[in-house]
Amino acid sequence: MKAIRYTGLALFLFSLGLLLALFFASSYTLTEQLFNTQVKKEHQELLRPEVASMFGKTYGLSISFVNSLNSAIERVNDKKRAEQAWDQVIYDDYAGSITRAATSGVIKTHTTLLFILVFVVGSIGALMYLLPQAQLAGPPGIKNNGIFHNSLNNRGWMGILVGTLLILFYIALYFFDAYITNWIILVDPVQKLINPSGQSSQWFLYGFLYTFAVLVMGVRMLIKYRHSKYQVFRTISVMFFQLSFAFLIPEILVRLNQPYFDFKNMWPLDYDFFDAWHLNTLTSSGGLGLFMLVWGITLFAVGVPVFVYFFGKRWYCSWVCGCGGLAETAGDPFRQLSDKSLKAWKIERWLVHGVLVFAVIMTAGVLYSFFTGSDTIAGLSTYTWLRQPYGFFIGAIFSGVVGTGFYPLMGNRVWCRFGCPLAAYLGIVQRFKSRFRITTNGGQCISCGNCSTYCEMGIDVRWYAQRGQNIVRASCVGCGVCSSVCPRGVLNLENRDEDGRFGKPILIGNNSSTLQK
């Protein structure tokens, strides 16, 4: 078994090393013919004098090529701004398209082979490493075997390295996609399978890697928590929804000339749902587009309160959501890093509800502009002061760079706990109007602390268990891991009548009093 695992680890590291090496594996040459095909005619006369020195010159790195190209565009824009010729300022993002067209080398000539070596061989290696774990680990169940005290899972050098790589990747993906052109080209074979006339983009690469991580690490999750039927079905659910609803169906819709739409995503997590371009796209796409619009509004306005009432926020956060799916699978090795302190809880409540308020105000401003045709409110631009800051700070930095890049540093639910406006909305409903609770049997609790250690949302579950109190917290996503790792069966996830939901009296000495938290 160990030989199989070591072989699998070697194959996985080979694929990972090859993926990183592909960043340096191409050359980039801009020709005048390529320039004419990629740049709009109205911009060619402006740009040609600035980029002429690049014609025929070969660059060995995407960074140097893109920097030279962007510098040329910026020189043109500086001149036009100085002349106040605002209509001639170039706002088009040519870096990505020109860099892709100028790319040559092994990534272009052997794309399919490289895809197989990176993702297929990497998957085989990962599975060879993970599957024997079921036999090597002995009987199913969670044991105190020190697995969370190594350099990867306890903020050691490996965790810091992984976190740094994730942060750098997200920054490149969101803001410098032209630099990772080779990786974008690498997933072209998958794009061609779904849409032969399509071409992979930065967001297709993101969606593919996201889904790939959920599926592969989902297998690990199934092995680790194989003793719990709840965890098995929950993991299969998030794998299914990510693969089908978040990845395949939207791409198939595009192939059918329909709007790109994720039927499981909703406002306010889908913060651009009410953007003018999105509303116009849906309303101009016939019956299906109108159905998507009605579906999206109904899901958050009716679906959330109804489903949360019967099942708690777990129906979405732990069974459907893509952010939760990645956190529960790829992020599972880091769940113990969530801060359980009272200070962290206070910050969490202010921050996550503050983002929700920001989302509501931003959306109100966007809708005001859409219906009135005015881009300003009280002299302030709704785009500059509301939509743009929200998209940058919340949509990109918080949910992406911090939300995932900080897995190895702050736990796997950083975004869900501190920043997700939808989680805040779901949590408010769950806290005040829901049948869901986690019941505890304090008489059976041995204070081992497994429940608190494994809680990804930073809840000190043991505090409740020791007192025999029900756990009713707005932040609880109902993942059920606290119950799965409890050796005494103290914790149970239940959907019952609301009566008695907030616990029962706690005996203190000879007197009884009710303590609720």
UniProtKB/TrEMBL annotation:
Q: Which GO terms describe its cellular component?
A: plasma membrane
Q: Does the keyword Nucleus apply?
A: no
Note whether Transmembrane occurs among the keywords.
yes
All copies of domain 4Fe-4S ferredoxin-type, residue ranges: 436-464, 467-496
Q: Which InterPro entries match?
A: 4Fe4S_Fe-S-bd (IPR017896), 4Fe4S_Fe_S_CS (IPR017900), Electron_Trans/Redox (IPR051684)
Recorded GO molecular functions are:
4 iron, 4 sulfur cluster binding; metal ion binding
| UniProt-recorded name of the protein | 4Fe-4S binding protein
**What species was this sequence derived from?**
Marinoscillum furvescens DSM 4134
